[in-house]
Write a structure and sequence with these properties.
By secondary structure, the chain is an all-alpha fold. It is 75% helix and 0% strand.
Length: 189
């Protein structure tokens, strides 16, 4: 059974969530570019330094689940059953992420991201970081016995499947289509 977080960790998580919620509310009400860091800190009733102790940049406030997404992607590799095939596990996780990000509830945030060059650029750098973390998990898997280059390529393709699906008319079909190509390339490698 996982260990429960202590009081300090719970308070930090609550403060982080309060800041993220305040930021999202302001961004959606006023527009991303119209809201400053001081506005978010005031709305969350925290000091600017407290905000920056939880979020490295204004853009990170929009992608507050970034670390969880990265953890889920690597967990799809490291947490799968011993004889579970790799690519179906990754496809399942990408489909879940795409389903979440294309839901009606996420639509206002997606529109905000798509409408902001700063957020699109941040999202792209975030995806590259996720690909590197995923590649590291793949390369460390003793059952795969693939080169670092092959692991990095697979990780990039998986992350690109997610990105391509977000812009598709039928996101889940797009994930399946891209994964068929990924599977063929992975088998050929």
């Amino acid at each position: 059974m996982p260990e429960q977080p202590g009081r300090r960790e719970r308070k930090k998580a609550a403060t982080r969530q309060k800041i993220a919620d305040a930021a999202l509310r302001l961004f959606l009400e006023r527009g991303y570019d119209a809201v400053g860091i001081r506005d978010v800190a005031a709305e969350a009733d925290v000091a600017v330094t407290t905000l920056f102790s939880h979020f490295a940049a204004k853009e990170a406030l929009v992608f507050e689940q970034d670390q969880d997404v990265e953890r889920r992607l690597t967990q799809a590799v490291t947490g799968r059953a011993p004889h579970e095939p790799l690519l179906p596990a990754l496809r399942r996780e990408i489909r879940a992420l795409v389903r979440h990000c294309t839901s009606d509830a996420a639509a206002p945030v997606r529109r905000m991201v798509e409408g902001s060059p700063a957020l699109r650029e941040y999202e792209e750098s975030m995806r590259l970081r996720h690909a590197e973390s995923l590649a590291t998990a793949l390369a460390a898997d003793p059952g795969l016995s693939r080169s670092v280059t092959a692991c990095r390529a697979l990780a990039r393709f998986v992350i690109d499947a997610y990105a391509l699906a977000l812009g598709a008319a039928d996101p889940e079909t797009a994930v399946d289509e891209v994964f068929r190509m990924i599977e063929a390339a992975w088998e050929a490698a």
